[in-house]
Structures are given as structure tokens and as C-alpha cells.
Amino acid sequence: MKPLRARSAGSPRSSVKSLGNSVPKPTAAKKSAAARTGHRAREPFADKAYRELRARILDNSMPSGEQYTEDELASMLDMSRTPTREAMLRLAGEGLVEVRPRHGMRVKPVSVVDMREIYEVLTALESTAAALAAARTDQGDSIKQLRHAISEMDAALKLDDLKAWARADEQFHTLLVAAAGNARLSELVQTYVGQSHRVRMLTLRLRAKPVMSNRDHEAVVDAVEAHDAKRAREIHFSHREQSGKMLVELLVGHGLTQL
């Protein structure tokens, strides 16, 4: 993964300021043209720093337990310390790192106990999301999107591409929670999914081929489409509960008590 490169700090702001009110404002026509050409506002550096560091942590290129100073991270991102610090604090809020004053940040390891607790939380939250999604009268395109994600998982397993399966599986869970229509619930789930992601990726080849996982997903979508909230909750609760139990057993069985 290539590091992000910040744009030059120089800007025409000082020259624009000197022109005062003589600087013409964009007309509605120009704004409309910009929208037609797909022009988008530049992503804030703090958001870029967060996205880049989070990706490095989740794919294990920044290993757990590693310590990084603020200057090291800023240099890695080719950014100033201010957006780097903002990104660090945001990651700390998600439980991915520990920020230490004057010492930068440390990537937090994930233990067996952590994984057990994370899956207990995910089981409760996601099964609630499945029930809420089933109870909605207007489900929009959610059923179609969920079934497409299952198709992607099936295709990945046929190719024995477990990384592609994991991406599609994560997309399925994200879509299912989004279908509940509860933004706070989605935010909570994403935090815990992020904390468990590294371990899930490291144990992909240690588990049996997840064919039954795909079928569980199909059953959940069937219940959601039928507006059967009770069944949707029960199926997904059982699915997540079994997944968590299997993952913890894998970690203990292979002596992977902390990752």
C-alpha cells in the first residue's frame, strides 16, 4: 500500500485575499457544470490520514504492539502533525490504537478475551439490526444488494479466494446493518468490526471453508424479505454466536492468545 502524499502547503489564498471583493464568485451555471463533470471537494487531510492509517492497521502492515511517534506517522503519510494527530485520536476512539502523550501511538493487540467480548457485542447488535430491517415496510434496494453480496461470496468460494470471500462477507454484514436504518447502530457495529478485522483475516486459512456461512446469510435475507423480524433475529443471532465461538476456539487451539 503506497503512502498518501499531501499536496504542497502553498496556496493562492494570500493573493486571493489581496483582491478583496474583486474576486468573482462562481456562478450557478459554473457550479452546475462542475457537478456535471463530477467535481468533488478535496478530502480533508485528517480524513486521508485516518483512512490510510486505519487501512494499514486492518491489513496488518502496521502490526499490533508496534509503537509510532507522531513525527514518524507524519513522515509516513507525508503530512503535517496536525491532521496526523487528529487521525490518531479518531483511531483511538475506535479502540484500534492507544495514544500516549509525548510517545505517539501504539497499535493495540487483540486477545482471545477481546475477541470473545467483541463477538458477544456484534451478535447482539447485528441480530437487532436484522430484526429492524425485517420490520421496515420500505426495504428499498437492500434485499437486492444483500443477495448480490451472497452471490459474490459463492463465486469467491468456487475460486477458493478466501480474501475475496471475506470482503464480500464484510460487505454483506455492512449492508444488513445499514438496512436497519439506524445510523447509531451502524456506527457502533463498524467500530467492533474494525477491532476484529485483523484477527479474522489472520485466521481465514485456519477455518473450514465457510459454505454454511453463505447459506446462513441466505436464510437471514429470506426472513428479512418476508418481514419476519423474529426469525431474522434468531437466525442471525445463531450465525454470529457460532462464528464467534469457532474463532475463539481456533485462536486457543493454535496458541494465538494475542494478536
Describe this structure in words.
This protein is mainly α and 259 residues long. 65% of the residues lie in helices and 4% in strands. It has helices spanning 13-19, 28-36, 45-58, 70-77, 81-93, 112-135, 142-158, 162-178, 183-202, 211-225, 229-253; strands at residues 67-68, 97-100, 104-107. Helix 6 packs across helix 9. The protein is globular. The relative contact order is 0.12.
Would you spell out the secondary-structure blueprint of this structure?
Elements: H1 13-19, H2 28-36, H3 45-58, E1 67-68, H4 70-77, H5 81-93, E2 97-100, E3 104-107, H6 112-135, H7 142-158, H8 162-178, H9 183-202, H10 211-225, H11 229-253
Antiparallel strand pairs: 1-3, 2-3
How many extended strands? 3
Low-confidence stretches: 1-39
**Shape annotation:** globular
Give the structural class: mainly alpha
Share of residues in helices? 55-70%
Q: Specify Rg, calculated over alpha carbons.
A: 22 Å
**Widest β-sheet, arrangement of strands:** 1-3-2
Distance between the termini: 21 Å
- Estimate the strand proportion: under 5%
Can you write the helix and strand succession as a string?
Answer: HHHEHHEEHHHHHH
Q: Mean pLDDT across all residues, rounded?
A: 85
Short note summarizing the structure:
With 259 residues, the protein is mainly alpha-helical.
Keywords:
mainly alpha, three-stranded antiparallel beta sheet, disordered N terminus, 11 helices, 259 residues
